[in-house]
Amino acid sequence: MAEFDLKRVTPLEWAGVGAGALAFIVSFFPWYSVSYAGFGESLSAWNTGFLAWFSVLLLMAAGGLVLAPHFGTKVDRLPLIWLVLAAVATVFILLRWLTLPDDGGLGDLGVLGDSGFESGAGFGLIVGLLLGIVSTVAAVLTFRAAPKPVTGYGQNPTVA
């Protein structure tokens, strides 16, 4: 097993690892909140549905895979795998936000009267979306910088 060296982890890799770790932490914060007449309830990512909790797992997996080569585990096509995991997680979080039950701002506009009803995305969901975007951007930059196989006409791309 290879020795782990903090100096060999690039800033982009730290972004991916940090996004995965922080996604786990904010998954316990409110992702959806409802309040009525001063009484409120909130749900974490683990109670908000598949799109929420699965996206957290995807970001955590991406962070773990980014660290794996630093512990001596070879991961083929790591930049591509990281990019797919982070992008899918980001899309899932965005879809979860768009599909949450919401009063549509009617409580804020007074259409419902002064009912005191409010609902919407919580702090955890907003931060989770930002973490997904950070991981996706870092993955895109890493993918673009990764060496591409050079092949000519009639050559097998798997043979170096």
Shape: elongated
Number of helices: 5
End-to-end CA span: 26 Å
CATH class: Mainly Alpha
Main beta sheet: strand number and arrangement? Answer: 3 strands, antiparallel
- What is the subunit organization of this protein? single chain
DSSP E strands, number? 3
> Helicity, in percent?
40-55%
What is the correct CATH architecture?
Up-down Bundle
Sheet with most strands: strand arrangement: 2-1-3
Overall number of domains: 1
> Which regions contain 5 or more consecutive residues with pLDDT less than 50?
none
String of helices and strands: HEEHHHEH
CATH topology: Butyryl-CoA Dehydrogenase, subunit A, domain 3
Mean pLDDT value: 86
Cα-atom Rg, whole angstroms?
Answer: 20 Å
Strand pairing plus helix content: what structural class? mainly alpha
Which percent range describes the beta-strand content?
A: 5-15%
Keywords: Membrane, Transmembrane, Transmembrane helix
Q: Can you describe this structure?
A:
Keywords: Membrane, Transmembrane, Transmembrane helix. Helices cover 51% and strands 9% of the residues. It has 160 residues and is mainly alpha-helical. It has one domain: Up-down Bundle (Butyryl-CoA Dehydrogenase, subunit A, domain 3), CATH 1.20.140. The radius of gyration is 20 Å and the shape is elongated. The relative contact order is 0.20. Strands 2-1-3 form a three-stranded antiparallel sheet. Helix 2 runs antiparallel to helix 3 and helix 3 packs antiparallel against helix 5. The mean pLDDT is 86.
